[in-house]
Amino acid sequence: MWIPKSLVFMLLMAALAGVASAKDDTSYITLMTHDSFAVSQTVLDSFKKHTGAEIKILKSGDAGAALNQAILSRKNPLADVFFGVDNTFMSRALSADIFVPYISPLLADIPDSLKLDLTYRLLPIDYGDVCLNYDIDWFSQKGLAPPKGLADLIKPDFKGLTVVQNPATSSPGLAFLFTTIGTYGQEGYRDYWERLRQNDVYIASGWSEAYYGKFSRAKGGTRPIVVSYATSPAAEVYYSEKKRGAAPTAAILSRGSAFRQIEFAGILRGTRKPELARMLIDFMLSPAFQKDIPLHMWVFPVRSQAALPEVFREHAHKAQAPVMLPASVIEAGRDDWIESWTEVVLR
Hints:
This protein is α/β, with parallel strands linked by helices and 347 residues long. It has helices at residues 5-23, 41-51, 63-72, 90-95, 136-142, 171-198, 207-214, 232-238, 274-284, 287-292, 294-297, 310-315, 327-345, and strands at residues 28-33, 54-59, 81-86, 99-100, 123-135, 162-165, 202-204, 225-229, 249-252, 258-268, 300-301. The chain is built from 13 helices and eleven strands.
C-alpha cells in the first residue's frame, strides 16, 4: 500500500515525540546508587507527596561498580541523579565529567569540612569513619589490654588476632589501606603491612566475611580485632536480640587509626529532568532525609542539625583526627598502592 511521504514524516515525528515525552516523564525520577543504599519508604513517599514524582532506585553493585556503570553510560545516562561516590573515587567521577554543577541552598547547613568539591558537582550527603573494632569481652577474659592504634597490631601479643579486608575487593579494606598510608606515608606503609603479614593478619574478601565470619563476635569466629566502622558498636546494640545497656564492641579512634569516608550525590549530565533532579538533591539534604540516614545506612548525616537516634548518641562515635587524603592523591596512587599491597601481603 502506498503511503504519502508527508504522512510518513508525520508518523515519524509523532513516534519521536512519544519517545521524548516518555524520557521527559516527570511522574518519576531515577536515582542510581550502590547496593548498600537504604532509606525508609515513608521518606521516599514524602518526596512524591511534595513533588508528584516517584523516586525510582537503580541499585548497580558496589560503589566502584556503580560509578563505572554511570561513566560507561554517560552518553545515554541510566538515571538522573547518582548517589554513592565517596572521597576514594571522587577524582575519577569528576574527571569523567558526568555531573553538572548545582549549588543547593541547603549547603548552608553543611560544615565546610565536608564540601570537598568546590565545583559543586558532587554534594556531601553522609559520612563515617572506617576503623578497627574489637571484642570487649574477649580481651577482658584473656586479661589482655585491647589495641590503642595501628602500631599495636604488629606487636607479638596481637599475633593472629586481626582480620582486615582486601582493598582490591572491599571498600572498608581500601579505606583501611588509606589509613595506613596516611599514618606511615607512601614509603612506610609497605613495611607496616609486611610486619602485619608476619604477625598473621587474616585477609578477608569483604566486610561480611570479616565481621560475620572471622570476628570473634560471630559464631565460630576467632579473631577479636576487625576493620569495620565507628558506628558498628551502635549497630550491635540496636540489632541485639536482648536489650543491652552497653555495646559488646568498641571502635578505636585514636589519631591516625581511622579514615573518614564521605558520600556524595550529583546530578548526572544529560538528565531530561533537571528541575526534578535539583529537587531530589535538596530532598537528600533536607531534615527528613538526613534524619533517616543513621538507622538505615549506619553513617552520620552531613546536616549538623539533624537529630540523631538515641543509640547513635550513646554508642556511635567520630574520630577527632581522622586520616583524610586529598581526592587527587588517592586517584593518582590508588591502583599502584593496591598492586604494591598485593605484592607485599598476598604473594
